[in-house]
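Protein Entry — a single chain follows
Fields — amino acid sequence, structure tokens
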Amino acid sequence: MWPLPLPFLYPPPASSGLAAAAAFVSLASLLSGVSELRGDNMAYSKFCRRRGDGGALLLPSRAAMAVAYGPALAAAVASFAVPGAVEGARAQILSAVLALHFLKRILEVFFIHRYSGCMPLTTALLICSGYLLNTVAMIYAQHLSQGLSEPPIDLLYPGVVVVAVGLAGNFYHHCLLARLRGDGGGDKGYKIPRGGLFELVTCPHYLFEIVMFFGFAMVAQTVYALAWASGTAAYLVGRSCATRRWYASKFEVFPARIKALVPYVL
């Protein structure tokens, strides 16, 4: 049990494995964020171009991202078919918003994003395993919360609103990024993004992704969901700072007013 009650969370379930997984997710994500800050970047998007293949098996980026997101989508949808896995409104809404998130990602992969490079298979599998295992674990943590006392502060429906804001903001800025490549897809060079919050930060799509993950945590109100959201935020802070540094190194004129992730702050 927690040394002090937290009114916005369920009590942790009696599962040492799940508690260890939550701690691992937070720590691993934090270390990944630190690695991004130090320049040891995960090999996808513009950072894959810098690394070279090193003999690794490469996939076209579109196929690699489908591999990364597809299994997590399948797991979220399949949870509805597992007897007793998603009982009650909170569990059903959690599985639904997770499925919606990964469905959006898959649709963006095939219809929105414009890719120009490749991704190592190992990177695609690493991202895939992270999303899949965390999705399954979050749904399982919600299942274990059945029968526990409800949190005094109910964040379920405010969480749905936060998820919607995160999804919409992330999608909008992904569309702005896709427009940089041109309608015909022939222009594959990088440009400084414009429009929306790109006028203030380098990675507003990451900012809204963080918002969305904390929306998931508000819907779930479990320790595991909060751990995943916090770990995601830690990683994306590092990735955003690395991305801003990359833009500043590639363009002679890069506005100093544009921060990495949070307008006017970071």
Notes: The longest strand covers residues 58-60. Residues 183-187 have pLDDT under 50 and may be disordered. Residues 71 and 132 are 6 Å apart (CA to CA). The chain has eight helices and two strands.
